[in-house]
Amino acid sequence: MDALEARFEETIAADQRIEPRDWMPVAYRRTLIRQIAQHAHSEIIGMQPEGNWILRAPSLRRKAILLAKVQDEAGHGMYLYAAAETLGVDREELTEKLIESKQRYSSIFNYPALSFADIGVIGWLVDGAAICNQVPLCRCSYGPYARAMIRICKEESFHQRQGYELLLAMVHGTDTQREMVQESTNRWWWPSLMMFGPPDGDSPNTQQSMAWGIKRHTNDELRQRFVDMTVPQATALGITLPDPDLRWNEERQAHDYTQPDWDEFKAVLSGSGPCNAQRLAHRRRAHENGAWVREAAGAYAEKQAARAARTEAVA
Ligand SMILES: [Fe+2]
Ligand SMILES: [Fe+2]
Q1: Could you tell me the distance, in angstroms and rounded to a whole number, from the CA of residue 229 to the centre of ligand 1?
Q2: Measured between alpha carbons, how far is residue 115 from residues 49, 63, 121, 186 in Å?
Q3: Which 3 state secondary structure label does DSSP give 249?
Q4: Distance 69 CA to ligand 2 centre (A)
Q5: CA angle, corner 197, sides to 193 and 200, nearest 5?
Q6: For residue 49, which ligand has an atom nearest its CA?
Q7: Residue 267 and residue 228: Cα distance in Å, rounded?
Q8: Collapsed DSSP state (helix, strand, coil) of residue 255
Q9: pLDDT, tens digit, for every residue of 223-255?
Q10: CA separation, residue 143 to residues 54, 78, 94, 246, 299 (Å)
Q11: d(CA 262, CA 197)
């Protein structure tokens, strides 16, 4: 082991952060680029199911909340692309990979938001699951990723609360509103469980990621934490989670629950979910429509640089 590698191992063992200028193994860099890019893409694609409801929000207040939430997700995407850039890739290249289907995003965003209750349930379950996944990433061994996650997690907690608050209003509303919340929960429960990734036995990269301090808990540990956190929240809403075998296990001090359909998960990841084609087509269109903005920004930057060079030459 050479000195650089020893230094890297020591830093990880001491639970210190690796910074962009530090030496790091090629595979560590590659893993982080893949994970951060996938995370950034998820934030950006994740704007679509909810963005679909901004024009149809039932009141000014609900519209303002939803707008703020969707805008936050755009911001999360930007922090994360910036974190990925510190590893030597550029955002342009990552965006190309997304729209050419060469990099993935979270399978959850390939499901449609069919009613306004989905806005509440997405905040409650999807942002709730995201929080379980992301809080440990605030202690990730790669500095720029960890720091981005601290900011993101603060906003995610607002997302979860706004969803839950909407659901509380709906379950105290009319029977139809209560039924809408139940129907939406039935649809989103299983895809939310899938957000933690495949069971530990099927997740070959987990051990290496944990050894590198990128991941702090296994997929199954995080999924269990999410289930245990969500059950009392469902009770408070008066909503049933659609799993007849969900029950408290006194011995394990945790809930037993049914696994989601992992074949469906694989099918959605490989492109055949209900909205995969629509999500990518929309992202591609938005990228094409934004070409003139990127060109104008590039031309402006060039002009500024030329002006700065002239001023320097005179001085
Ligand atoms: Fe986010
Ligand atoms: Fe969020």
Answers
A1: 19
A2: 11, 15, 10, 13
A3: strand
A4: 7
A5: 105
A6: 2
A7: 27
A8: strand
A9: 999 999 999 999 999 999 999 999 999 999 999
A10: 35, 16, 20, 38, 33
A11: 9
Q: Could you say which DSSP state residue 217 is in?
A: S
pLDDT average, residue stretch 163-181: 98
Contacts of 251 (CB under 8 A, 6+ apart): none
Place of tokens 């039935």: 186
CA 276 to centroid of chain Cα atoms: 16
Element (DSSP H or E) covering residue 190? helix 175-194
Query: CB under 8 Å to 308, separation ≥6 — which residues?
Result: none
Q: Report yes or no: 107 and 191 within 8 Å, Cβ to Cβ.
A: yes
State how far the Cα of 162 lies from the Cα of 121, in Å rounded to an integer. 10
Please state, in angstroms and rounded to a whole number, the distance separating the CA atoms of residues 111 and 187: 9
What is the rounded CA–CA span in Å between residue 192 and residue 121? 10
Closest ligand by atom to 161 CA = 2
Instruction: Yes or no: say if 248 and 255 are a contact pair by the CB < 8 Å rule.
Output: yes
Separation of CA 132 and ligand 1 centre (Å)? 12
Is residue 121 within 8 Å of 191, Cβ to Cβ? no
Q: How far is the CA of 76 from the centre of ligand 1 (A)?
A: 5
- Whether the predicted pLDDT of 1 surpasses 80: no
Q: Which distant-in-sequence residues (6+ apart) come within 8 Å of 282 by Cβ?
A: 48
The pTM of the full predicted model, rounded to 2 decimals, is 0.94
d(CA 2, ligand 2 centre) in Å? 42
Which ligand places an atom closest to the C-alpha of 74? 1
